[in-house]
Amino acid sequence: MIREKLFKYFSLLAAICAIVFLLSIIVSIFREGLPIFGKVGFLRFLFGKSWHPTQEPAEFGILALIVGSIVVTIGALLIAIPLGVGSAIYLSELAKPQTREILKPFIELLAGIPSVIYGLFGMAFLAPFIMRLFNLNAGLNAFTASIVLGLMVVPIISSISEDAISAVPKSLREAAYALGANKWETIRKVVLPAAKSGIFASIVLGFGRAIGET
């Protein structure tokens, strides 16, 4: 009983400390950044199209930054969702056990690669390739960034979606087969609807990772 109470209070203390640290960071950021609104105004800061803090007069407009982040994130999800969910379906429903044992750890390993490695790959290899392929003046653009972020997000969506699909009870699959459904019909009409909450959670986490990296 005493150990349970100690664990309860320790967990409560840890949660309170986490909240306090987070609020401290938020307050510190607002305190340091608040004076800028006195110079340029909130609306001009939010809807300004230029960000040149070092020139005279300085310009502080973040609209282009916000739009760029949204565009790149949407592009990354358009790439990552089909690849991530598709690979999850393959691993959980179609792949042989030996293949799954090889690919599953490999995908989870990709999820742990630091984002700077993906960025280096994009700048050193992907950007020059995109520039030559489409005859562009520069390869560092939203399309290249979307591809890099998409590759970064695929392991997250794939790993979590695969866990969600694998957690669907086997009895549901057997019931679908008993009613005459084939493999694809079972996956599309039974397995995926049953695992949709986990798949949606993986997409949300992937979205958070993508927009956080922009």
From TrEMBL:
Keywords: Cell membrane, Membrane, Phosphate transport, Transmembrane, Transmembrane helix, Transport. One of its GO terms (biological process) is phosphate ion transport. GO terms for cellular component: plasma membrane. This is Phosphate transport system permease protein. The gene is pstC. Part of the binding-protein-dependent transport system for phosphate; probably responsible for the translocation of the substrate across the membrane. It is found in: Cell membrane. Residues 66-214 form the ABC transmembrane type-1 domain. It comes from candidate division WOR-3 bacterium.
